[in-house]
Amino acid sequence: MTNTQFAELALSFEGVIEHAHFDRRAFKVDKKRIFTTLQESSQTANVKLSIEEQKIFCDYGPSIFPIPNKWGDQGWTTLDLAHLEKHLVLEILNSGYQLVFQK
């Protein structure tokens, strides 16, 4: 998956807008809550998941892993986009969107 494809998927969810967030592109629900970010230089994305979903998705392989700090302990999960299929990334994004949208 390319950075462009990822951004298109993230923006396909209702009410999502894009903003700059440090060295990343952030995708927000309702203009305030980030559900995913994209770091184009490394072709990686971070997605907010529940701890349960994080464990499930991380079992798919080494291209999906918790951020190795306190953010990862809160469900933030890194995706190595170059090694993931669109259908799986879409499923992960949907989980992150639903989690943040419901808050």
Description of the molecule:
The protein is of the alpha+beta class. The protein is built from 4 helices and 6 strands, in the order αββββαβαβα. It has helices at 3-11, 51-58, 70-73, 86-101; strands at 16-21, 24-29, 33-39, 44-48, 64-66, 76-80. A hairpin with a 4-residue loop joins β3 and β4 (44-48). α1 packs parallel to α4 (86-101). The longest helix is centred in the C-terminal third of the chain and has 16 residues, at 86-101. The protein is globular and about 30 Å long. 30% of the residues are buried.
Descriptive terms for the model:
103 residues; alpha+beta; Aspartate Aminotransferase, domain 1
* Major sheet: arrangement of strands: 1-2-3-4-6-5
Which H/E pattern describes the elements? HEEEEHEHEH
CATH topology: Aspartate Aminotransferase, domain 1
What portion of residues belong to β-strands?
25-35%
**CATH architecture heading:** Alpha-Beta Complex
Instruction: Please mark out the parts with pLDDT under 50 across 5 or more consecutive residues, or reply none.
Output: none
Main beta-sheet annotation:
6 strands, antiparallel
User: How much is the radius of gyration in Å?
Assistant: 12 Å
CATH secondary-structure class: Alpha Beta
Secondary-structure-based class equals: alpha+beta
List the domain count as a whole number.
1
Number of strands: 6
Shape: globular
Q: Give the rounded overall mean pLDDT.
A: 95
* Ends apart, CA distance between termini: 29 Å
The helical percent reads 25-40%
What count of helical segments does DSSP give? 4
